[in-house]
Amino acid sequence: MTGAVAVVTDSTACLDGDVATSCGIHVVPLRVVIGAGSHDDTSHAGMDVLAAQRDGVPLTTSRPPPARFSEVYARAAAAGAAGIVSIHLSGRISGTVDSARLAAAGAPVPATVVDSRSIGAGLGLTVLAAATAARVGLSLSEVAGAAVRRSAHLRSVFCLTTLDHLLRGGRMSAVTLLGATLGVKPLLHIVDGRIVPLEKVRTMARAVTRLEQLAVEFAAGCDTAPVDAVVQHLACGDRAAELAQRLSGRMPGLGSVRIIEVGPVIAAHTGPGLLGVAVAAA
């Protein structure tokens, strides 16, 4: 739509292609390097990542170069966008937001870059809030403000079967592993843009219960309703469906709950068994 604000994000928002298209969201992919091969962060490479982890094949990930963002910003402007709001995973986890800022400085229309201070489901919720604001015709600053407000009223917690992949990728300090014992499932959350430990539980059943409790407590403390929730997982769809069902039964102010499976870049840093939930106030 001519004169509208275009919303851009990156692939770690884990937005289904149909959702991104219907909401008018432009997605810039990160890259995952599996052995000697480099791939865009698309779902079809997800099983390749898990196979590589199982077989000990080297895995790395990389941010998009500024030129990838410049291309997307130019296409949005050519389609009639009067401005761009570009929302990305936490700058304390990846340099993606820095690439976006470099490109924004030379964009053909005004471009505002927002650090969501989150990743995965939390980033996706932030991006969808901005897209909603853009669709109703709000200004550049108002669309960016919608993203900032959503990011500030968001809780993201998750459980991993192991911290090995986060440690290997440098996303957590080895000190967080102190005190862990065999069989313990670490619960983590995102605080001020960083992944930090929250608590440890002994079983996945207990992890699902704690994720549910934490999400319900956060929703109950929100001043506005409804709240939106997203359950995210990697290769544990049954557990994700169970958690989503339990949340639906315990959150009377729930506006929507979706289930997503994370893509290859997040998979490279978590391994299989990731289960989490992000809850955001309206």
Detail the topology: elements first, then pairings.
Layout: E1 5-10, H1 17-23, E2 25-28, E3 31-34, E4 37-40, H2 46-55, E5 59-62, H3 66-78, E6 83-88, H4 96-104, E7 111-115, H5 121-135, H6 140-152, E8 154-159, H7 164-168, E9 185-191, E10 194-201, H8 204-220, E11 227-233, H9 237-250, E12 254-261, H10 264-270, E13 275-281
Parallel strand pairs: 1-2, 1-6, 6-7, 11-12
Antiparallel strand pairs: 3-4, 3-5, 8-9, 8-13, 9-10, 11-13
Could you please describe the fold and organization of this structure?
There is one protein chain. The chain is of the alpha/beta class and about 280 residues long. It folds into two domains: about 5-30 and about 65-150, Rossmann fold, CATH 3.40.50.10170; about 155-280, Hypothetical Protein Tm841, Chain: A,domain 3, CATH 3.30.1180.10. About 40% of the residues lie in helices and about 25% in strands. The chain contains ten helices and 13 strands. It has helices at about 15-25, 45-55, 65-80, 95-105, 120-135, 140-150, 165-170, 205-220, 235-250, 265-270, and strands at about 5-10, 25-30, 30-35, 35-40, 60, 85-90, 110-115, 155-160, 185-190, 195-200, 225-235, 255-260, 275-280. It has a six-stranded mixed sheet with strand order 10-9-8-13-11-12, sandwiched between helices. Strand 3 and strand 4 (about 35-40) form a beta hairpin. The two termini are about 25 Å apart. The model is unreliable at about 170-180 (pLDDT under 50).
